[in-house]
Specification:
This protein is an alpha/beta fold. The protein contains 8 helices and 19 strands. Helix 2 (61-74) runs parallel beside helix 3. It starts with 6 loop residues before the first helix and ends in an 11-residue tail after the last strand.
């Protein structure tokens, strides 16, 4: 996931991405704090990117319905909605039905990776060319530094492009077309449809990649053992992020951490994940900042994986949310919940479901919290 940006920077970043894809853009700020990025191409195509720039934004179904009507009236060819916040389930359903692309910080990370647009992102985040790689490793919980103590003799984005060129039109066997918004007139990386493991790649071709990996290991060794949980054992971890619904005006401050496991043991009882699924345990230290009682129940939480939302996994005779998640003014208490998601899930986003009684929540990752399901 790309880092949180200031609202104005987020809008400019999106405009620059469209510019890289061949769009001439203009930006219109609206009275309610949202933006329209209007794009035109030399072939006459017209596009509109509807931007909700804050992390507190919540894009509703009504927003999508109005946008669909507007695009129909204006003859828009490419319609996109982007936010640093969250989408309501209804909004996602309307977007799927009407062919509207939805972007968030996770899908935008894919855009940057696939298009080699790290130089665009660095304009707004600073740092060096290796920072996107280090950020991914940190998201997996690996002990890598914020920056490397030395400079690389190459640009990783340029190296990636050179490797792709050497590999011709081969892909990795997956189809992620149109996953990141408006494509450049159907262009792709090639239609070979082959797989990397079928290529006769020479050691000379792989040498720069090996060097880059070695550099990462050396950098990581300065801060501790660099290991990837699950690798080598046939399993894998799900990288978890969270979307806040409020900032400074939050009613609940939630410091959290998460881990992936095949089973949890609570007070001597072991609960195994269903077949072809894995547990994601999320433990939270919740502090009420409100002057009145606030409720954050398990039913209000969801873990979104690949566009699907998963509710909490009930565990018989055990709960991590005593008192039904009710918090008195000023109270601070640890709670936990468990989600059961597909075993091959690579990433997930913790979020609060929309609703009239849902308090504003600010999520902050805290690796000092042990993500365990224990008797409370």
């Amino acid at each position: 996931m790309i880092p949180e940006l200031e609202p104005e920077d987020f809008v400019s970043f999106l405009g620059d991405l469209w510019g890289e894809r061949g769009w001439e853009t203009t930006v219109q700020e609206r009275a309610n704090g949202t933006y329209f990025i209007i794009g035109e191409r030399g072939d006459g195509r017209r596009g509109v990117l509807f931007v909700f720039p804050t992390t507190e934004s919540h894009v509703s179904g009504q927003h999508l319905r109005r946008f669909v009507t507007l695009c129909g009236k204006k003859g828009v060819d490419v319609a996109v909605v982007a936010t640093q916040g969250a989408y309501a389930d209804e909004a996602r359903k309307i977007a799927d039905a009407k062919g509207i692309h939805l972007l968030d910080r996770t899908t935008l990370e894919g855009t940057v990776e696939e298009g080699g647009f790290h130089h665009v992102l660095r304009k707004y985040t600073g740092g060096g060319p290796l920072d996107p790689i280090l950020a991914k490793l940190r998201a997996l919980g690996l002990p890598v530094p914020e920056t490397l103590p030395f400079d690389l003799p190459f640009d990783p984005a340029e190296l990636q492009a050179r490797i792709r060129s050497r590999l011709g039109g081969y892909s990795d066997g997956t189809d992620d077309s149109n996953a990141d918004g408006p494509p450049p007139d159907g262009e792709g990386d090639g239609g070979g449809g082959g797989r990397f493991d079928a290529l006769p790649v020479s050691p000379r071709t792989l040498l720069p990649v090996v060097v880059a990996v070695v550099l990462l290991v050396v950098a990581g060794s300065a801060t501790g053992a660099l290991t990837v949980p699950g690798m080598g054992s046939g399993g894998g971890d799900t990288a978890v992020s969270a979307v806040s619904t409020a900032g400074a005006n939050a009613a609940l401050d939630v410091r959290w951490n998460a881990e992936t496991t095949d089973s949890v043991t609570i007070n001597g009882t072991t609960y195994d994940a269903p077949e072809n699924e894995t547990f994601v345990v999320v433990r939270m230290n919740v502090t009420s900042l409100s002057e009145s009682p606030e409720q954050l129940s398990q039913a209000q939480l969801a873990l979104e994986v690949a566009g699907d939302r998963y509710g909490y996994q009930p565990l018989r005779n055990s709960t991590g949310f005593p008192s039904a998640g009710l918090f008195a003014p000023g109270e601070s208490r640890e709670v936990w919940t468990v989600f059961s998601v597909p075993a091959d899930a690579e990433s997930g986003t913790l979020l609060v479901r929309s609703g009239e009684d849902v308090p504003g929540v600010k999520f902050t990752r805290d690796t000092a919290i042990s993500a365990e399901a224990t008797e409370l």
